[in-house]
Write a structure and sequence with these properties.
- A six-stranded mixed beta sheet has the order 8-5-1-2-3-12.
- Strand 6 and strand 7 form a beta hairpin.
- The chain is α+β, with helices and mostly antiparallel strands.
- Helix 2 packs antiparallel against helix 3.
- The protein folds into two domains: 62 residues; 162 residues, Immunoglobulin-like.
Length: 298
Protein backbone atom coordinates (compact mmCIF):
# COMPACT_ATOMS: atom_id res chain seq x y z
CA UNK A 1 0.00 0.00 0.00
CA UNK A 2 2.88 2.35 0.77
CA UNK A 3 4.38 1.75 -2.67
CA UNK A 4 1.08 2.27 -4.53
CA UNK A 5 1.36 6.11 -4.83
CA UNK A 6 4.84 5.75 -6.31
CA UNK A 7 3.70 3.13 -8.83
CA UNK A 8 0.51 4.90 -9.93
CA UNK A 9 2.24 6.39 -12.97
CA UNK A 10 3.52 3.05 -14.25
CA UNK A 11 2.19 1.85 -17.59
CA UNK A 12 1.54 -1.89 -17.43
CA UNK A 13 1.65 -2.15 -21.23
CA UNK A 14 2.52 -5.85 -21.35
CA UNK A 15 -0.55 -6.66 -19.25
CA UNK A 16 -2.83 -4.47 -21.37
CA UNK A 17 -2.44 -5.98 -24.84
CA UNK A 18 -4.16 -4.51 -27.89
CA UNK A 19 -3.64 -7.38 -30.33
CA UNK A 20 -3.63 -11.19 -30.54
CA UNK A 21 0.16 -11.53 -30.24
CA UNK A 22 0.26 -9.35 -27.13
CA UNK A 23 -2.69 -11.27 -25.63
CA UNK A 24 -0.94 -14.61 -26.14
CA UNK A 25 2.25 -13.30 -24.58
CA UNK A 26 0.27 -11.91 -21.62
CA UNK A 27 -1.22 -15.36 -20.99
CA UNK A 28 2.28 -16.89 -21.02
CA UNK A 29 3.54 -14.28 -18.52
CA UNK A 30 0.60 -14.96 -16.19
CA UNK A 31 0.97 -18.74 -16.49
CA UNK A 32 4.72 -18.62 -15.81
CA UNK A 33 4.16 -16.33 -12.82
CA UNK A 34 1.48 -18.62 -11.36
CA UNK A 35 3.72 -21.66 -11.77
CA UNK A 36 6.54 -19.79 -10.06
CA UNK A 37 4.26 -18.85 -7.15
CA UNK A 38 3.52 -22.54 -6.52
CA UNK A 39 7.06 -22.70 -5.15
CA UNK A 40 7.59 -19.14 -3.96
CA UNK A 41 4.50 -18.75 -1.75
CA UNK A 42 5.00 -21.98 0.27
CA UNK A 43 8.73 -21.25 0.67
CA UNK A 44 8.08 -17.73 2.00
CA UNK A 45 5.34 -19.05 4.29
CA UNK A 46 7.61 -21.80 5.63
CA UNK A 47 10.37 -19.30 6.40
CA UNK A 48 8.12 -17.54 8.90
CA UNK A 49 6.55 -20.82 10.08
CA UNK A 50 9.89 -22.46 10.82
CA UNK A 51 11.28 -19.31 12.44
CA UNK A 52 8.31 -19.24 14.81
CA UNK A 53 8.00 -22.97 15.43
CA UNK A 54 11.68 -23.55 16.16
CA UNK A 55 12.40 -20.35 18.08
CA UNK A 56 14.62 -20.76 21.12
CA UNK A 57 11.79 -20.10 23.57
CA UNK A 58 9.52 -22.85 22.14
CA UNK A 59 10.31 -25.82 24.39
CA UNK A 60 7.51 -27.89 22.78
CA UNK A 61 9.27 -28.06 19.40
CA UNK A 62 10.62 -31.49 18.54
CA UNK A 63 14.41 -31.68 18.67
CA UNK A 64 15.92 -34.30 16.32
CA UNK A 65 19.70 -33.80 16.09
CA UNK A 66 20.21 -37.09 14.22
CA UNK A 67 17.55 -36.53 11.53
CA UNK A 68 18.98 -36.37 8.01
CA UNK A 69 16.45 -37.72 5.48
CA UNK A 70 12.77 -37.74 4.53
CA UNK A 71 11.50 -39.44 1.38
CA UNK A 72 8.37 -37.29 1.41
CA UNK A 73 10.39 -34.10 1.55
CA UNK A 74 12.73 -35.32 -1.20
CA UNK A 75 9.71 -36.16 -3.37
CA UNK A 76 8.24 -32.70 -2.87
CA UNK A 77 11.54 -30.84 -3.28
CA UNK A 78 12.38 -32.59 -6.56
CA UNK A 79 8.97 -33.63 -7.88
CA UNK A 80 7.16 -30.28 -7.82
CA UNK A 81 9.95 -28.34 -9.63
CA UNK A 82 10.23 -31.13 -12.23
CA UNK A 83 6.49 -30.92 -12.95
CA UNK A 84 6.70 -27.12 -13.21
CA UNK A 85 9.69 -27.34 -15.58
CA UNK A 86 7.86 -29.93 -17.71
CA UNK A 87 4.80 -27.68 -18.00
CA UNK A 88 6.97 -24.66 -18.86
CA UNK A 89 8.90 -26.70 -21.41
CA UNK A 90 5.65 -27.71 -23.12
CA UNK A 91 4.33 -24.13 -23.12
CA UNK A 92 7.66 -22.83 -24.42
CA UNK A 93 7.76 -25.39 -27.23
CA UNK A 94 4.20 -24.71 -28.37
CA UNK A 95 4.37 -20.91 -28.05
CA UNK A 96 7.76 -20.75 -29.79
CA UNK A 97 6.08 -22.13 -32.89
CA UNK A 98 2.67 -20.45 -32.66
CA UNK A 99 4.25 -17.06 -31.86
CA UNK A 100 7.14 -17.35 -34.32
CA UNK A 101 7.67 -13.66 -35.28
CA UNK A 102 7.97 -14.30 -39.02
CA UNK A 103 4.78 -16.36 -39.13
CA UNK A 104 2.20 -14.39 -41.06
CA UNK A 105 -1.09 -13.69 -39.31
CA UNK A 106 -4.23 -14.93 -41.00
CA UNK A 107 -6.97 -12.33 -41.44
CA UNK A 108 -9.70 -11.33 -43.87
CA UNK A 109 -7.82 -8.21 -44.91
CA UNK A 110 -4.65 -8.06 -46.98
CA UNK A 111 -1.60 -7.35 -44.85
CA UNK A 112 0.21 -4.02 -44.93
CA UNK A 113 3.89 -4.39 -45.80
CA UNK A 114 6.34 -2.18 -43.92
CA UNK A 115 10.13 -2.09 -44.19
CA UNK A 116 11.77 -0.85 -41.00
CA UNK A 117 15.26 0.62 -40.65
CA UNK A 118 16.73 1.46 -37.26
CA UNK A 119 19.17 4.36 -37.44
CA UNK A 120 21.13 6.64 -35.10
CA UNK A 121 18.76 7.56 -33.40
CA UNK A 122 15.50 7.37 -35.27
CA UNK A 123 13.22 4.94 -37.06
CA UNK A 124 12.55 4.89 -40.80
CA UNK A 125 9.36 3.19 -42.00
CA UNK A 126 9.05 2.44 -45.72
CA UNK A 127 5.77 1.34 -47.29
CA UNK A 128 6.91 -0.37 -50.52
CA UNK A 129 3.40 -0.99 -51.88
CA UNK A 130 2.35 2.62 -51.26
CA UNK A 131 5.74 4.12 -52.23
CA UNK A 132 5.83 6.40 -49.18
CA UNK A 133 7.97 6.62 -46.05
CA UNK A 134 7.86 8.18 -42.60
CA UNK A 135 10.33 8.91 -39.83
CA UNK A 136 9.43 8.19 -36.21
CA UNK A 137 5.78 7.50 -36.99
CA UNK A 138 4.09 4.25 -37.94
CA UNK A 139 0.51 3.95 -39.17
CA UNK A 140 -1.65 1.04 -40.28
CA UNK A 141 -5.33 0.05 -40.34
CA UNK A 142 -6.74 -1.60 -37.22
CA UNK A 143 -7.80 -5.21 -37.72
CA UNK A 144 -5.28 -5.60 -40.55
CA UNK A 145 -2.07 -7.64 -40.20
CA UNK A 146 1.17 -5.73 -40.59
CA UNK A 147 4.15 -7.63 -41.99
CA UNK A 148 7.45 -6.02 -41.04
CA UNK A 149 10.84 -6.57 -42.62
CA UNK A 150 13.50 -5.09 -40.38
CA UNK A 151 17.17 -4.20 -40.63
CA UNK A 152 19.61 -1.72 -39.14
CA UNK A 153 21.63 1.00 -40.81
CA UNK A 154 24.13 1.13 -37.96
CA UNK A 155 24.42 -1.03 -34.85
CA UNK A 156 22.21 -3.79 -33.51
CA UNK A 157 18.92 -2.48 -32.18
CA UNK A 158 15.52 -3.76 -31.06
CA UNK A 159 12.02 -2.91 -32.34
CA UNK A 160 9.28 -3.10 -29.71
CA UNK A 161 5.63 -2.04 -29.46
CA UNK A 162 4.78 -3.41 -25.99
CA UNK A 163 0.98 -3.46 -26.30
CA UNK A 164 1.13 -5.29 -29.63
CA UNK A 165 3.84 -7.74 -28.57
CA UNK A 166 7.00 -9.42 -29.86
CA UNK A 167 10.19 -7.45 -29.46
CA UNK A 168 12.57 -8.27 -32.31
CA UNK A 169 16.14 -7.30 -33.11
CA UNK A 170 17.39 -5.34 -36.07
CA UNK A 171 20.94 -6.01 -37.27
CA UNK A 172 23.08 -4.46 -40.00
CA UNK A 173 23.36 -6.63 -43.08
CA UNK A 174 20.62 -8.94 -41.83
CA UNK A 175 16.83 -9.03 -42.08
CA UNK A 176 14.33 -10.11 -39.45
CA UNK A 177 10.58 -10.45 -39.93
CA UNK A 178 7.63 -9.75 -37.68
CA UNK A 179 3.83 -9.86 -37.97
CA UNK A 180 1.56 -7.83 -35.69
CA UNK A 181 -2.09 -6.84 -35.58
CA UNK A 182 -4.07 -4.29 -33.55
CA UNK A 183 -7.61 -5.30 -32.61
CA UNK A 184 -8.94 -1.75 -32.52
CA UNK A 185 -7.92 1.80 -33.35
CA UNK A 186 -5.52 3.45 -30.93
CA UNK A 187 -2.10 4.99 -30.44
CA UNK A 188 0.64 2.72 -29.09
CA UNK A 189 4.10 3.67 -27.92
CA UNK A 190 7.01 2.09 -29.75
CA UNK A 191 10.62 2.16 -28.68
CA UNK A 192 14.12 0.83 -29.04
CA UNK A 193 14.70 -1.90 -26.47
CA UNK A 194 18.45 -2.28 -27.03
CA UNK A 195 21.07 0.28 -26.05
CA UNK A 196 22.58 1.81 -29.18
CA UNK A 197 24.45 4.89 -28.08
CA UNK A 198 23.93 8.45 -26.90
CA UNK A 199 20.49 9.07 -28.41
CA UNK A 200 19.03 5.72 -27.41
CA UNK A 201 16.75 7.05 -24.66
CA UNK A 202 14.87 9.28 -27.12
CA UNK A 203 14.52 6.66 -29.85
CA UNK A 204 10.73 6.47 -29.62
CA UNK A 205 7.89 6.44 -32.13
CA UNK A 206 4.10 6.22 -32.06
CA UNK A 207 2.25 3.41 -33.81
CA UNK A 208 -1.18 4.60 -34.96
CA UNK A 209 -3.79 1.89 -35.52
CA UNK A 210 -6.48 3.65 -37.57
CA UNK A 211 -9.77 3.08 -39.26
CA UNK A 212 -9.50 2.43 -42.99
CA UNK A 213 -10.64 5.98 -43.80
CA UNK A 214 -8.20 7.54 -41.33
CA UNK A 215 -5.34 5.47 -42.72
CA UNK A 216 -6.21 6.58 -46.28
CA UNK A 217 -6.03 10.18 -45.07
CA UNK A 218 -2.68 9.51 -43.41
CA UNK A 219 -1.34 8.09 -46.68
CA UNK A 220 -2.43 11.25 -48.51
CA UNK A 221 -0.73 13.32 -45.82
CA UNK A 222 2.48 11.36 -46.35
CA UNK A 223 2.24 11.86 -50.11
CA UNK A 224 2.25 15.59 -49.47
CA UNK A 225 5.53 15.24 -47.58
CA UNK A 226 9.14 16.17 -48.31
CA UNK A 227 9.36 14.96 -51.89
CA UNK A 228 11.22 11.80 -52.84
CA UNK A 229 13.49 9.95 -50.43
CA UNK A 230 16.45 9.54 -52.76
CA UNK A 231 19.71 7.87 -51.89
CA UNK A 232 21.29 11.28 -51.35
CA UNK A 233 18.53 12.34 -48.95
CA UNK A 234 18.82 9.03 -47.17
CA UNK A 235 22.55 9.58 -46.58
CA UNK A 236 21.73 12.92 -44.92
CA UNK A 237 18.95 11.30 -42.90
CA UNK A 238 21.29 8.50 -41.80
CA UNK A 239 23.66 10.92 -40.08
CA UNK A 240 23.43 10.56 -36.27
CA UNK A 241 20.82 12.87 -34.77
CA UNK A 242 18.57 12.94 -31.71
CA UNK A 243 14.90 13.77 -31.08
CA UNK A 244 14.09 13.99 -34.78
CA UNK A 245 10.56 15.26 -35.50
CA UNK A 246 8.08 13.17 -37.46
CA UNK A 247 8.54 13.60 -41.21
CA UNK A 248 7.09 12.09 -44.37
CA UNK A 249 8.32 11.32 -47.87
CA UNK A 250 5.96 11.29 -50.86
CA UNK A 251 8.11 8.83 -52.81
CA UNK A 252 10.90 6.39 -52.05
CA UNK A 253 13.89 5.25 -54.09
CA UNK A 254 12.77 1.77 -55.30
CA UNK A 255 15.95 -0.01 -54.14
CA UNK A 256 16.47 1.96 -50.93
CA UNK A 257 15.65 -0.80 -48.43
CA UNK A 258 17.55 -3.37 -50.50
CA UNK A 259 20.62 -1.17 -50.56
CA UNK A 260 20.45 -0.46 -46.83
CA UNK A 261 20.04 -4.17 -46.08
CA UNK A 262 22.93 -5.11 -48.36
CA UNK A 263 25.14 -2.26 -47.08
CA UNK A 264 25.59 -0.54 -50.42
CA UNK A 265 23.71 2.72 -49.89
CA UNK A 266 27.09 4.47 -50.19
CA UNK A 267 27.56 3.22 -53.77
CA UNK A 268 29.74 0.24 -52.94
CA UNK A 269 29.08 -3.33 -54.10
CA UNK A 270 25.94 -4.81 -52.55
CA UNK A 271 26.47 -7.88 -50.37
CA UNK A 272 24.04 -10.03 -52.35
CA UNK A 273 25.72 -9.05 -55.62
CA UNK A 274 29.16 -9.74 -54.16
CA UNK A 275 28.05 -13.19 -52.98
CA UNK A 276 26.52 -13.99 -56.37
CA UNK A 277 29.66 -12.88 -58.20
CA UNK A 278 31.89 -14.84 -55.83
CA UNK A 279 29.79 -17.97 -56.40
CA UNK A 280 29.92 -17.43 -60.15
CA UNK A 281 33.69 -17.06 -59.95
CA UNK A 282 33.97 -20.29 -57.99
CA UNK A 283 31.80 -22.14 -60.51
CA UNK A 284 33.93 -20.72 -63.35
CA UNK A 285 37.03 -22.06 -61.66
CA UNK A 286 38.46 -18.67 -60.78
CA UNK A 287 38.68 -17.45 -64.39
CA UNK A 288 35.76 -15.03 -64.07
CA UNK A 289 36.79 -11.38 -63.73
CA UNK A 290 34.73 -9.72 -60.99
CA UNK A 291 33.55 -6.16 -61.43
CA UNK A 292 31.73 -3.67 -59.25
CA UNK A 293 28.12 -3.54 -60.52
CA UNK A 294 27.60 -0.26 -58.70
CA UNK A 295 30.16 1.52 -60.88
CA UNK A 296 29.78 2.13 -64.63
CA UNK A 297 32.26 0.42 -66.93
CA UNK A 298 34.67 2.23 -69.19
Amino acid sequence: MAAAPFLSGCDMALLDPAGPIGAEEKSIIILATCLMLIVVIPVIAMIFLFAWRYRASNKAATFKPDWDHSSKIELAVWGIPCVIIAVLAYVTWVSSHTLEPSRELVADKKAVEVEVVSMDWKWLFIYPELNIASVNELAFPAGTPVHFKLTSATVMNSFFIPRLGSQIYTMPGMETKLSLLADAAGDFDGLSANYSGGGFSDMHFVAHAMTDDAFAQWVEKARAGEGKLTMAKYRDLAKPSEKDPVSYYAEVEPTLYHDILNKCSDGSTCMDAAVSLAMAKEVAGGDLQLCNPAKPRG
